[in-house]
Amino acid sequence: MANKETKNETNKFQAIISHAKEYGFIFQSSEIYDGLSAVYDYGPWGSELKKNIRDYWWKSMTRMHDNIVGIDAAIFMHPTTWKASGHVDGFSDPMIDNKDSKKRYRVDHLIEGYADTLDKDAAEALLARMNQLLAADDLDGLKQLILDEKITCSVSGTSNWTDVRQFNLMFSTQLGSVSEEASEIYLRPETAQGIFVNFLNVQKTARMKIPFGIAQVGKAFRNEIVARQFIFRMREFEQMEMQFFIRPGTEEEWYAYWKEERMNWHLSLGFSPDKYRFHDHDKLAFYAKAAVDIEFEFPFGFKEVEGIHSRTDHDLSQHQKFSKKKLQYFDTEINQNYVPYVIETSIGLDRTVLMVLSEAYAEEDIPKEDGTKDSRVVLRIPPRVAPIKLAVLPLTKKDGLPEIARDLIKECREDFYCFYEEKDAIGKRYRRMDALGTPYCVTIDYQTKEDQTVTIRDRDSMTQERIPLDKVKEWVSLRIR
RNA sequence: GCGGAAGUAGCUCAAUUGGUAGAGCGAUAGCCUUCCAAGCUAUAGGUUGCGGGUUCGACCCUCGUCUUCCGCUCCA
Fold it and tell me: CA–CA distance from A7 to each of A2, A4, A20, A348, A362 (Å)?
């Protein structure tokens, strides 16, 4: 039974991926060249959906909060940024695999572990040799050292090792068009640092008073060891982050506040609360005082969509140290200077898109009036983020009906995304709109010509009501907010 | 990254022992049609993932490679 359910969920996930491609939501990157692993492109409706989610988040965080402003920092940053943040040293470790146990080790951990079994002088000599090789990036030398010392895998007990490989979390590239003058810089692995380095710029120019937040949406890049599960874990992805700067000592209450606030945002999309849960981090990162994930139940299990972290003053202090610039705030209420503490909310935009698609996708059987069965695939996307809000469908493409439809679109398209369709039977057009997640369809029929009314059909219930033509814009607008 | 499986039209799949690649759906154009897919006609669309090898001849056998899926592994 459990197996069957797992299989069904796997099938559902496959179906969602297929549907996303077939209906123009998400394509694999560079597909005509056989694709690029763990990179995806958004098609017409996928980019619209993604943009709507991004806009909804942006509006919720900035416009709906007096004390949060946005920025748009560059992807390229000064290389020292990543030294200060800990990304350079923390995430570029040589790795080695044991071919028998399939176990992967960080080379330094492996050698250090072995050194612990030696006497003091031998251990020190070994570690000195290792550090020398590490500093020189001599990967072959490191492998030779492991072989010479006959270091074995604790699981398999063998020394059947792969070559030593460098694992780099960050992508690097060259800044400068002439290679000799070029310096190596990184594509940012997170958007947060762009906020931290601009802390004072924003605080001063936007005249912000603590507590206040800075929001940002943007691309980030990470070399994942295993990147899988469609757009859940990509090498290039988009984050929506907000760093909230607070007075030291108030972090607990603000952490609790944002934890609740962010969960409420998710629930405002209208999905079942059962689909969400908090997951507290047991093992905290070196900078964090507390951390919690908001997890969503994807077809492949509960997975992290958003993280809320209490980051202390770690980041600002680090940048203060490396840049030798004061990153402090004078708090007039308590008459004190301090480096603010930070509560971070960080949500993956692509993951949120996948969350919406996963929850929206449904295959339905519909009993017909004559007793036979009908079926449809429908995306129950929350109306406020649906790519197309309204389809306008003339019942036939004759007798002036298309003209009325075109006029209605002209009236509405400034306010929300409309779609015109006159091909095929009306039922078929409804199904096509269901498959794209369009919440409302207006049909122009012959009665429209007589009394200026239209039918408007609801995607989820498939029921219709008749409303005046000149009320359509208002009717839809009210329901997509 | 390792192991296993797979790759034929946009999608789902066919194609005897190796002998010139087909169908349904979808798409497009037109016809029909007065409110919930699967009516009619026509058209487009494939160097069978890619590259070598064996063969008179390869979708089929073989090697490599790329991609995807499943399991393991790593992870801020």
Answer: 9, 5, 20, 27, 16
